[in-house]
Design a protein that fits this description.
With 693 residues, the protein is an alpha/beta fold. It has three domains: 259 residues, 2-enoyl-CoA Hydratase, Chain A, domain 1 (Alpha-Beta Complex), CATH 3.90.226.10; 181 residues, 3-Layer(aba) Sandwich (Rossmann fold); 95 residues, Orthogonal Bundle (N-(1-d-carboxylethyl)-l-norvaline Dehydrogenase, domain 2), CATH 1.10.1040. The chain is 50% helix and 11% strand. It has 29 helices and 17 strands. The radius of gyration is 28 Å and the shape is globular. The two termini are 40 Å apart. The structure holds 3-hydroxybutanoyl-coenzyme A. The site of 3-hydroxybutanoyl-coenzyme A has 25 residues, from strand 5, helix 3 and helix 12.
C-alpha cells in the first residue's frame, strides 16, 4: 500500500500490517496506507474479514507527535478511523504492546478487539495537553459508559488487557501469538456471522446518562478539582459531555475543533516539549555508541533514614533485591519498620492486599555491616551530608565491593569528585541524587564526576530508567542543577520578605503560577530545621529569616509554627503577626526599605532568578541542555507542566524581556546576582532562545 503498510491474505482474511518502527506511530504514510488498505480489501471479493496488526514491539502507540508542529496532512486520523468503522467486512484489531492515543482510537474504530494478555491500552493525550482527537471521546463513552471513559481520558493512565476485558473494551485476551489469535477471531466472526459492531452507533449507555446528567457532572467535577490550571482535562470532560448530549457526528466535529485548539496552545506545546525532553535527557552526547548499561540484579543502600528507605523501595518496587545497610542497629530497625508502614499505607489507600506488601518487603533485607555490599551490582550511599563520613564509607566500599560494581552517592551538595577520590576506582563512582520522597518523585540527577567512566554513567542512567525514574546527567557543582536553582529562588524569597512581601503573598504568587504549594508552605511542611541544618553544614547565609525561625524552634507544621501558623494541627497555615514582626525587625536591622510588592513582581523575581541561574548552569556545562533543566524542575520540584519547565517558560517570554526585567530588579534591589547572566544577555542581544542552543 505504502512504505509502512502492507496487506497479506490468508484463507480469506486480509491482514493489514503496519511496520513503522519504533512504536508504529500513525504518521501520514501510515494513515494513508491504512485508508487505502481498507478500500482495497473491501473491494476484494476474496476477502471476508480484516485484521489490523502491527509488526514489532507494539500496536500503534498513537499519532505521530512530531507532526503536531506541522500543518495537518490528509487523510487525518479521524477520517481513517471512520473509514475503518464503515467497512462492510468485519475488522478485528490485534493489539499487543501499548495501544495508546490514536492507536487505541484505531482499535475503537474496529468492530472487534483482541489483545495480548500483556497489552496495555489507553488515551494518554491529556498528558500531552490534548484530548483524544480521533473519536476517542465519542466512541469510548459509548462502549464503557461516560464515567468510566472519563476516568481513562482525564487520567490518561492505560489499563491492562485484563482490566480492559472486564470493562468490555476488548472481546478476547490471549497469550502467545496475537496475529494468529486475531485471524482465528476474524474467521470465527465470519463463520458465526457475528454482527458488525460500530461504536458510533451505540447509544444504550449514553441514553442512561442523558436521562440523569447529575452523576456524570458530579464525577467530572471531582476529577477536575485535582487538575487545577490545566486546560486539557476540562476540555476532555466537555467533549465526553458532548458524547452524551450530541449526535456522534456533531460530537466528533467538536472534538476535532477542541483538539486543534489545544494543539495550537502553549500548554500542549509545553507538555509535548517535556515528552521529548525526558527522552533526550537520557542521552549523553559523548557516550560511545557501544557502551551498554550493565546488569543490576542486586542493590545495596547504605543509610536507613528517610532517603535510604525511599531508595530501597524504588528498587523493591521494580522487583530488584535490595540490602539496606545501617551500622546502627536501632536506625536499621526503625528504617525497615518505616518501609513496612509506608507499604501498608499505600496498600490501604489503593486496595492492595497483604501479599502485595509482603512481596515488596520481602525483597528488602537489612544488614548492619558494610560487608553486605559484597554481591551488589549497584551500591547507593545515602548517609548524612558529612564529607568525612562519606570518605570513610567510600574507602570501605573500595575494599568490599566487587569489581565493576557501581559506587553511587546520593549526596545533594557535596563534591562527587572528592568522594570518588577516597577510592582507587573513581571511574566507577557516580552521583545518583534522588528527590524526596524517593519512591514518589521521578527525578534522579545522575552526577558525572570528572573521572566517572562511561560504563558507570550508562548503568546509572539505564537502571534509573528501568525502575521508572527520569534520569538527567549533570556535572559537579554545589547543589548540582535543581538545588542550585532552588537556592537562587530561596535567596529572592528571603529578600522579598525583607523588602515587604508577606509570606502569604509569596506562596500565593507561586500557587497562582501553578505550583501545588508555595515555597514557604513547602518549608513548613518539610521542616524549616532540615534546610537550616543543611545551610549550617554548607556555611550558607542565603536564608536569614528561615534560620532565625529555626533558631526560635519554629520548625513548621510539626511544631505548629513556621513561616505560617498551624493552630491545632491545621494543614493550611495562617498569617502569624509574630513572623511579620520578626521580618520587619530584621529588615530594619539591615536597613532595607519596605514597600508594597505586587504579585506580578514576586512572580517575575522568583522565576527570572531561577532562569538566570539556569543560564549560568548551561554556560558552565553543568547541564547539557536547557530541556534537561526543565525535566529536573518538573520531575524533582513540581514545576507546573503547563509551563514546560523554567527554560521553556523563559523562551515563551523571550530572553530580551527577562534580561531587561532582571537588570531593573538588580538595580532596584541592589542584588547583583540578579544581573543578567552572560548567556542570557547574549540570547537577549541576538534574539536567541534556550531551546535553540
Ligand atoms: N509519536 C512520535 N514519536 C514517538 C511517539 C509518538 N506517538 N511515541 C514514542 N515516540 C518515539 C520516542 O520519542 C522515542 O524516540 P527516540 O528513540 O528518538 O527518543 C521512541 O519513539 C521510543 O519511545 P520510548 O523511548 O518512549 O520507548 P518506550 O518503549 O519506553 O515507550 C511508549 C513506548 C509507551 C509507546 C512511549 O513512547 C509513549 O508513551 N509514547 C507516547 C504515547 C502517546 O502519548 N500517544 C498519544 C499520542 S497523541 C494522539 O494520539 C492524538 C490522537 O488522539 C489524535
Amino acid at each position: 500500500m505504502t512504505q509502512t503498510v502492507g496487506i497479506e491474505i490468508e484463507d480469506g482474511i486480509a491482514i493489514v500490517v503496519t511496520d513503522n518502527p519504533p512504536v508504529n506511530a500513525l504518521s501520514a504514510d501510515v494513515r494513508n496506507g491504512l485508508f487505502k488498505a481498507i478500500e482495497t480489501v473491501e473491494a476484494d471479493a476474496n476477502v471476508e474479514a480484516v485484521v489490523i496488526h502491527c509488526a514489532g514491539r507494539t500496536f500503534f502507540a498513537g499519532a505521530d507527535i512530531r507532526e503536531f508542529d506541522k500543518p495537518p496532512v490528509s487523510p487525518v486520523l479521524s477520517e481513517v478511523i471512520d473509514r475503518i468503522e464503515a467497512c462492510t467486512k468485519p475488522v478485528v484489531a490485534a493489539m499487543h504492546g501499548t495501544a495508546l492515543g490514536g492507536g487505541f482510537e484505531v482499535a475503537l474504530g474496529c468492530h472487534f478487539r483482541v489483545a495480548l494478555a500483556s497489552a496495555k491500552m489507553g488515551l494518554p493525550e491529556v498528558k500531552l495537553g490534548l484530548l483524544p482527537g480521533a473519536g476517542g471521546t465519542q466512541r469510548l463513552p459509548r462502549l464503557i459508559g461516560p464515567q468510566k471513559a472519563l476516568d481513562m481520558i482525564v487520567s490518561g493512565d492505560p489499563v491492562g488487557a485484563g482490566k480492559a476485558l472486564d470493562l468490555g473494551i476488548v472481546d478476547n485476551t490471549v497469550d502467545g501469538d496475537i496475529r494468529s489469535a486475531a485471524v482465528a477471531f476474524a474467521k470465527k466472526a465470519v463463520a458465526e456471522g457475528l454482527p458488525i459492531r460500530r461504536l458510533s452507533m451505540f447509544d444504550e449507555r449514553l441514553a442512561a446518562a442523558r436521562a440523569d446528567m447529575a452523576p456524570f457532572e458530579e464525577h467530572a467535577a471531582a476529577l477536575l478539582t485535582r487538575k487545577r490550571g490545566l486546560d486539557a482535562p476540562r476540555i476532555c470532560a466537555d467533549s465526553v459531555r458532548n458524547a452524551i448530549t450530541l449526535p456522534f457526528a456533531e460530537g466528533s466535529r467538536k472534538e476535532r475543533e477542541f483538539f486543534m485548539h489545544l494543539k495550537n496552545g502553549v500548554q500542549s506545546a509545553a507538555q509535548r516539549h517535556l515528552f521529548f525532553a525526558e527522552r533526550t535527557a537520557q542521552r549523553v552526547d559523548d557516550m560511545p555508541k557501544d557502551v551498554r548499561p550493565g546488569k543490576v540484579e542486586q542493590v545495596a543502600v547504605i543509610g536507613a533514614g528517610t532517603m535510604g528507605g525511599g531508595i530501597a523501595m524504588v528498587f523493591a518496587n521494580a522487583g530488584i533485591a535490595v540490602t539496606l545497610i545501617d551500622v546502627q542497629a536501632e536506625a536499621l530497625k526503625r528504617g525497615l519498620a518505616n518501609i513496612e508502614k509506608n507499604y501498608a499505607r499505600t496498600a490501604a489507600r489503593s486496595g492492595k492486599g497483604d501479599d502485595w506488601i509482603a512481596e515488596r518487603v520481602g525483597r528488602i533485607t537489612g544488614a548492619e555491616s558494610l560487608e553486605a555490599v559484597a554481591q551488589a551490582d549497584l551500591i547507593i550511599e545515602a548517609v548524612f551530608e558529612d564529607m568525612a563520613l562519606k570518605h570513610k564509607i567510600f574507602a570501605d566500599l573500595d575494599r568490599l565491593a566487587k569489581p565493576g560494581a557501581i559506587l553511587a552517592t546520593n549526596t545533594s551538595t557535596l563534591d562527587v569528585d572528592e568522594i570518588a577520590a577516597a577510592t582507587k576506582r573513581p571511574e566507577w563512582v557516580v552521583g545518583m541524587h534522588f528527590f524526596s520522597p524517593a519512591n514518589v518523585m521521578r527525578l534522579v540527577e545522575v552526577v558525572r564526576g570528572r573521572k566517572t567512566g562511561f560504563q558507570a554513567l550508562a548503568t546509572a542512567i539505564g537502571i534509573s530508567r528501568a525502575v521508572g525514574k527520569a534520569p538527567v546527567t549533570v556535572g559537579v557543582c554545589f547543589g548540582f542543577v535543581g538545588n542550585r536553582m532552588l537556592y537562587a529562588r530561596t535567596r529572592q524569597v528571603e529578600r522579598l520578605l525583607l523588602e515587604g512581601a508577606a509570606p502569604q503573598a509569596i506562596d500565593k504568587a507561586m500557587t497562582d503560577f501553578g505550583f501545588a504549594m508555595g515555597p514557604l508552605a513547602v518549608s513548613d511542611l518539610a521542616g524549616i530545621d532540615v534546610g537550616w541544618r543543611a545551610r549550617q553544614q554548607a556555611g550558607s547565609k542565603i536564608a536569614p529569616i528561615a534560620d532565625a525561625l529555626a533558631e526560635m524552634g519554629r520548625y513548621g507544621q510539626k511544631t505548629g509554627k513556621g513561616f505560617h501558623l498551624y493552630p491545632e494541627g491545621a494543614r493550611r497555615g495562617e498569617p502569624d503577626p509574630e513572623v511579620d514582626a520578626l521580618i520587619a525587625r530584621m529588615a530594619g536591622e539591615r536597613g532595607v526599605k519596605r514597600r508594597e510588592i505586587s504579585s506580578e513582581e514576586i512572580t517575575e523575581r522568583l522565576i527570572y532568578a531561577m532562569v538566570n541561574e539556569g543560564a549560568r548552569i548551561l554556560e558552565e556545562g553543568i547541564a547539557a541542555r536547557a530541556s534537561d533543566i526543565d525535566i529536573i524542575w518538573v520531575f524533582g520540584y513540581g514545576w507546573p507542566v503547563q509551563h514546560g519547565g523554567p527554560m521553556f517558560h523563559a523562551d515563551q517570554i523571550g530572553a530580551g524581556m527577562i534580561a531587561a526585567r532582571l537588570a531593573q530588579m538588580a538595580e532596584s534591589s541592589g542584588d547583583e546576582t540578579l544581573a543578567p547572566a552572560p548567556l542570557l544577555a547574549r540570547l537577549a542581544a541576538e534574539g536567541g532562545a534556550f531551546g535553540k542552543l
